[in-house]
Amino acid sequence: MGRLGYFLNRLFKMDYKRMFSTIKDIRARSGKSYFFLLPDMLHCALKYNAGYMDYKIAEMWNLNDEQRKTVITRGISNGIVRRMNDKAYWHFFDDKAQFNETFAKWVPRKWLKIHEGTTVEEIADLAQGRDALIGKPLEGSSGVGITKYTPADWKDPEAFRARLLADQIGILEEVVVQHPAMASLCPTSVNTCRIATLLGDKDQGIVYAFIRIGNGKVMDNVDCGGMAARIDLDSGMLLTVGADKAGNRYAKHPITGTDIVGFQIPYWEEAKAMCMEAARIVPQLRFVAWDVAITADGPTFIEGNSFPSHAVPQFAAHYPDGIGILPEFKKFIDV
């Protein structure tokens, strides 16, 4: 689909209420008038396949056209996914139980698939001696539907089984205990590394990596109020401030006070090697974003994403010179 076709398709499917709310927010943040913003957003939509959220997150009002060419917008990202990932194989990642089975080498935690045939005894066996369990929908993204359960929840085993089914939980897992250094950023969430592998025509490797850090909630996801910072691919050190979807920037974590810039990810080389080995197990998906937790024993997968979000890799705070991440993709594929 060309730029005009993509634009027209989005035009018909647009959530206009959300769009105008976003434009109002952009006006407050940018100090620009509606007379500037509306035609400029239209220009970016037609020329760069940029939606209103792209415009907001990348702060495109601050960028000239040369800089805007380097932003990975939604339209560009969708095109890369369509080219690189055969949809017939998405189920290896989209189904969380199948993901755990396929990549079992790097998923050592205990887990149980929840369905009508799951017995009370199986659930009780998983819960035995644990302080908490994590329930997830079998499919889904952005942390939607993920619930933390405690012994008070499974005190009545029959009622707990019924609740899991009512909550549409598809998989129940033991809690991942993160490395103490990672917990020092934010102890309420498992702060994961988003590592994107790309098996391109020009090169194969890791195209980008970010850490996602919670901000007091169970989830670290930016759609749940978390923040992200860019990771240096060579050293595993955080290069940038933390930034969230609202545009807030943090040199130190607002709850723990831990420095974000310069923070060193433990087991970084092991995490990269794990992702590259796993990337070749389902080669029909050539562009995958892996969510990696770092434990005291090394890296482990939380999940993999067959349709990587383009939001985090374009936060304006991560590109202070205005040059976005698209040039990194061009080292691997033609865009």
Tell me the distance between the termini.
14 Å
Sum up the overall morphology in one term.
globular
How many beta strands in the DSSP annotation? Answer: 11
In percent, how much strand structure appears in the residues?
Answer: 15-25%
Instruction: State the low-pLDDT regions, or none.
Output: none
Summarize the structure.
With 335 residues, this protein is of the alpha+beta class.
Map the helices and strands.
Blueprint: H1 3-13, H2 16-30, H3 34-48, H4 52-57, H5 65-68, H6 74-84, H7 91-94, H8 96-102, E1 111-113, H9 120-127, E2 133-136, E3 147-149, H10 157-166, E4 171-174, H11 180-183, E5 193-199, E6 204-213, E7 227-230, E8 242-243, E9 249-250, H12 268-278, E10 287-295, E11 298-305, H13 326-330
Antiparallel strand pairs: 1-4, 2-3, 2-4, 5-6, 5-10, 6-7, 8-9, 10-11
Overview of this protein structure:
This protein is α+β, with helices and mostly antiparallel strands. The protein folds into 3 domains: 3-69, no CATH class; 93-98 and 178-330, D-amino Acid Aminotransferase, Chain A, domain 1, CATH 3.30.470.20; 110-174, Dna Ligase, domain 1 (2-Layer Sandwich), CATH 3.30.1490. It is 33% helix and 17% strand. The chain is built from 13 helices and 11 strands. It has helices at 3-13, 16-30, 34-48, 52-57, 65-68, 74-84, 91-94, 96-102, 120-127, 157-166, 180-183, 268-278, 326-330, and strands at residues 111-113, 133-136, 147-149, 171-174, 193-199, 204-213, 227-230, 242-243, 249-250, 287-295, 298-305. The chain has a 5-stranded antiparallel β-sheet. A 4-stranded antiparallel β-sheet has the order 1-4-2-3, with helices on one face. A hairpin with a 2-residue loop joins β10 (287-295) and β11. α9 packs across α10. The radius of gyration is 21 Å and the shape is globular. The two termini are 14 Å apart. The mean pLDDT is 92.
